[in-house]
Specification:
- By secondary structure, the chain is α+β, with helices and mostly antiparallel strands.
- The chain folds into three domains: 191 residues, no CATH class; 371 residues, Alkaline Phosphatase, subunit A (3-Layer(aba) Sandwich), CATH 3.40.720; 139 residues, Sandwich (Jelly Rolls).
- The chain is built from 21 helices and 29 strands.
- Strands 4-10-9-3-8-6-7 form a seven-stranded mixed beta sheet, with helices on both faces.
- The longest helix is centred in the first third of the chain and has 25 residues.
């Protein structure tokens, strides 16, 4: 024991323990997580050597907080990458004091507990060597080691600039290094702009992104033969899951998770280069149903903004088809209130909007969001059967939820696949196969245009642009006249125009995009914003990828989605500002400012309560999610909740989150509402910094039901509080 104590007292033991903690362990953990790239290891070594140089001779009580924060960053990186496929950003850092930050979205604890445990043990070993050797001076490091961090950082910078990596950011960077590199690049850009002076940036040309383009050659000689329209949006499914798409772009990804859907793809028209413009379901639905880009910057979803408008919504596909004699229906497997789909879907033209409340069949497995995919498609098949009995043509949009986190699947699927995510995808594939086969047996495919797509992409680790890679499989009665592979670049923004063009119906000028049922000789401009990167293809063979705000790399690429692209260089300055200006112009297509707009998320709907709150997202009673609040603004909220059961009280919680992490704005932990004494609240808070992806979570539990008759939100500049003081509770939404 004494021999071990003496060894721990040696200065070399302290240096070894620090090296083990900040150099050896991170490199081994990177390999264990499957993030192995030369740049990633180089980044780990650069940060580790910097910590050694800075902390080797520091007092343990000074070094300990630094090392704890560094370790917490490492854990947060692994958890956030596992949950949502991105690195933490500076806006996330203050959430590290919140234990919820290090939980993945399943709410079931750490996704990588071994990582945290390994770091903790290494930290305790370092602390033991420090305490054991108290009073023993540490010798100075060799002078040559002081230059090691600088050499490693320079080497990483040189490789990134000369031979840039297309790997995911967490594969190429240690998080502290990535944050440092971002700040340095921002300083460089600001310096360039200061040297340029106040140059007025010309407005970019927008017609290629905003106008309807029907100049292509029609694929069908006559209007489509279909009588009805069925749109099936599969939650989170990327285009790489369809074999025809993988083969068309030569993808190295070969996992065949959806063989049934791939077989159906042999019977229809596939669009391999199909772009998803953003993340989040409501944004994907808006783009495909309203022919417009949603926000490319995490701002308030345009579906919510559209609630303040009574003209643009009439151009959306459901409203247009309804005007031409279709009955229009929307059905999803989850509750409608989340993201305000209970208000948005009727507003854009659906005659009938149903969610979880419509289904009477039982689930095959427990799933917090609602119907598992097999139960959902069984119910949807019955729904189609009811529509077949009516005389009018119909449009039905379906949205699945089973491949949303947390991924759920039956035990036999979990045994067959490596991960719950893969098992959920396999379960969806089988459920969709049964549904499509059922449609065929009923004769629906003979007179219905069926479009199968996804709302967003949950990404695939190691597959280039997987977060933006969608798919569009079209099954039409005249499928023999359509190509199996539709060449060209398309995206969700084209879907409304395409379906109207298929029926040879007039396309409103408020829509944008091309028709999937036409062949174009020229390229087209298209954009996306996923995983924190703004991407733009100019339609002339150049693809740009920009880290916000104004840093871009550009590549030679015939299309948008490709297995690889030829790196041509990087730029900031005018070209990068023009791309940002295009995105900003698209963001303002509905409202010019997020200020002074009143959003009303309340209604007279009776909402049954559960015995307990299980999930902040799935159990939300209102749809006020992902709002935007400018820097320096002030937000006011008014709330009225009433219990409708005369014998029962309702217990209410109201939480606020930003980028899916809890935000403290001084709200009570729990409140009570009764029929005689409804819960009424008026509160406000300042926004000293810009807030994006800001969500309210109104949660309730008890044995009865409630009405949320008022949930009004207005954001304004200080001093403008009198502009919208009268906030009516009976309107869906109003605007100043």
């Amino acid at each position: 024991m004494s021999a071990l104590f003496n060894r721990l007292r040696r200065p070399s033991a302290r240096l070894f323990s620090l090296t083990l903690l900040v150099l050896i362990v991170p490199v081994c953990l990177r390999a264990a997580l499957g993030w192995s790239t030369p740049l990633g290891y180089l980044s780990d070594l650069a940060i580790g050597s910097l910590l050694i140089v800075l902390l080797h001779r520091r007092a343990w009580w000074l070094a300990l907080p630094v090392l704890m924060f560094w370790g917490l960053l490492a854990v947060a990186t692994a958890e956030l990458v596992s949950a949502v496929g991105r690195l933490p950003t500076p806006s996330d850092i203050h959430y590290l004091i919140d234990p919820q930050f290090v939980e993945n979205s399943t709410g079931g604890g750490l996704a990588h507990p071994a990582l945290g445990l390994t770091l903790l043990l290494a930290l305790l070993f370092w602390l033991l060597t420090q305490v054991t050797a108290r009073g023993t001076p540490n010798p100075a490091l060799p002078r040559a080691l002081w230059s090691a961090p600088l050499v490693l950082f320079a080497a990483h910078w040189g490789v990134q600039n000369l031979w840039p990596s297309e790997a995911d950011p967490w594969r190429a960077y240690n998080l502290p290094h990535q944050l440092m590199a971002s700040e340095v690049a921002d300083l460089q850009i600001r310096a360039e702009e200061w040297l340029d002076g106040d140059v007025e940036e010309p407005a970019p040309a927008m017609t290629g992104l905003t106008d309807v383009d029907l100049n292509g050659q029609k694929l069908l000689a006559a209007p489509g033969q279909a009588r009805n329209v069925l749109i099936i949006a599969l939650e989170g499914i990327p285009g790489a899951y369809i074999r025809a798409n993988r083969e068309a772009i030569g993808s190295h990804y070969q996992e065949d998770l959806m063989p049934n859907l791939s077989r159906w793809a042999e019977r229809g028209m596939n669009t391999p280069d199909y772009v998803l413009h953003t993340h989040q379901t409501i944004r994907g639905l808006y783009a495909m149903l309203c022919g417009d880009y949603d926000k490319l910057n995490n701002g308030t979803p345009k579906g919510v903004e559209m609630l303040t408008l009574n003209e643009r919504n009439q151009a959306c596909l459901p409203a247009q088809l309804r005007e031409h004699g279709f009955s229009t229906h929307y059905l999803q497997g989850a509750g409608l209130r989340f993201m305000a789909k209970d208000k948005i879907m009727p507003h854009i033209g659906f005659d009938v909007t149903h969610g979880l409340e419509w289904f009477t069949n039982s689930n095959y497995l427990e799933f917090p969001w609602g119907k598992d995919d097999k139960a959902f498609f069984e119910g949807a098949l019955d729904y189609v059967g009811q529509l077949k009995k009516q005389k009018k043509p119909w449009m039905l949009t379906l949205l699945t939820v089973g491949t949303h986190q947390p991924y759920s699947a039956p035990e036999d699927y979990l045994e067959r696949f490596e991960t719950p995510k893969q098992a959920a995808v396999g379960y969806l594939d089988d459920a969709l196969e049964q549904f499509l086969s059922g449609l065929e047996r009923q004769g629906v495919l003979k007179d219905t245009l069926v479009v199968i797509t996804s709302d967003e992409s949950h990404g695939i680790d190691g597959v280039r642009l997987a977060s933006s890679w969608g798919f569009n499989l079209t099954l039409a009665p005249e499928h023999e006249q359509l190509p199996r592979l539709n060449k060209g670049v398309y995206g969700h923004v084209d879907l409304s125009t395409s379906i109207l063009d298929y029926f040879d119906l007039p396309v409103p000028t408020a829509l944008s995009g091309r028709s999937l049922f036409r062949d174009y000789e020229t390229g087209r401009e298209i954009m996306s914003f996923t995983n924190g990167k703004l991407r733009y293809h100019n339609g002339q063979g150049i693809f740009a990828e920009c880290d916000m705000p104004r840093r871009c790399r550009y590549y030679e690429s015939a299309g948008f989605i490709a297995e690889s692209a030829t790196y041509k260089g990087n730029y900031s300055g005018h070209p990068a500002r023009q791309i940002a200006a295009r995105a900003n112009a698209l963001d303002l297509s509905l409202l010019r400012t997020p200020l002074n707009h009143r959003y009303q998320f309340g209604s007279t709907n009776v909402i049954p309560l559960q015995a307990q709150i299980k999930d902040d997202w799935a159990d939300n009673l209102i749809g006020a999610q992902y709002l935007e609040m400018p820097k320096g603004s002030h937000t006011r909220v008014r709330l009225t909740v009433r219990s409708v059961d005369p014998q029962q009280a309702a217990y209410i919680q109201l939480k606020a989150k930003e980028f899916e992490q809890d935000v403290q704005i001084g709200l009570p932990s729990e409140m009570v509402a009764t029929p005689e004494q409804p819960l009424q609240m008026n509160f406000s808070f300042d926004n000293p910094k810009e807030r994006k992806a800001f969500s309210f979570h109104l949660l309730g539990y008890g044995e009865g039901a409630v009405e949320v008759t008022d949930f009004s939100v207005i954001t304004e500049l200080p001093g403008q509080e009198d502009l919208l003081d009268e906030m009516p509770v009976d309107d869906t939404a109003q605007s100043s």
